[in-house]
Specification:
The chain has helices spanning 15-23, 46-56, 75-81, 97-109, 131-144, 156-159, 165-168, 191-208, 231-244, and strands spanning 26-28, 36-37, 40-41, 62-64, 86-91, 114-121, 150-155, 174-177, 213-217, 251-253. With 304 residues, the protein is α/β, with parallel strands linked by helices. The protein has one domain: Glycosidases (TIM Barrel), CATH 3.20.20.80. An 8-stranded parallel sheet has the order 1-4-5-6-7-8-9-10, with helices on both faces. Strands 2-3 form a two-stranded antiparallel sheet. Strand 4, helix 3 (75-81) and strand 5 (86-91) form a beta-alpha-beta unit.
Length: 304
Amino acid sequence: MANAAPVCRHEVQIDAIREALAHTRFVSYQPTALRIIDGKATHANEASIADDLTVLRSRFDGLITYGASSGAERVPDVAAALGYKAVIVGVWDPSSDEEVGKAIAAWGRHPQLVVGISLGNETVLGKRFDFESLGGAIGEVRKKAPGLVLSTTEPFHLFLTEAATPLLHELDFMLANVHPVFQPWFASASDETAAQFVVNVVDLLAAAYCGPILLKETGVPTAPDRAGYSETRQATFYRELRDRFPPTAARAFAYFSAFDAPWRVADSHPVPGYHPEEAHWGLFDDARRPKPVVSVIPPLRGQR
């Protein structure tokens, strides 16, 4: 696929997503009150979501969510009240008419704020969908909401496979996960190397897909330290990435993730095994206290 012409899609108007990439600072966000316990989701109310988003607002004006149920469908409403500029609404289960309907309804309430919808997060990696069925699900949503800008999220290496080509034709923009921490060289590599790896991967993605590319997940968790993770390394990685990856209308990255989620250690994971790092990806801990990385992310203009 590396030698093929990049896949392009021009059927929809994507000026809003290009504007958002160039001028919005995104963070990937799951409400702190929304947890999966024994396979069941707790409910996040608007007051708790408002507390989360108020903490984030001084440094972020864009959000990428993971689901549109259990209260998360109200994130755009709270974000609008707090002056956020862009929200990409996640749909955890693209086959759920109810969840898809809630995401479309959020777009209907806030058409200037909701710049796109992501149908699924690592659903191909987790074998919940294959590329063909996921492309079909995106096509069905496009029929229901023809003006809505649509994407999905997978690890970067899956987007670079030949099997992904039909799916790329369905995407109005690309959301990719690029995690240098899962590369075999990470533990002994410098943060400069890890940040440059992310930039190099985006170059590969751009050679395969000519639409806007937004990295939904990257970064460094802050524990466990035996794996080479720390608060210091998280902060220095993002300092390096900010220097090497300025946002443009064609490509940008989101910070991952807003808050720690201790419950995720016991949650199902698309990759078998024990994943203690899943609890520690946050820029803030689960009590909304900032980690050192927050000090290397400048407040937005006019925010303190």
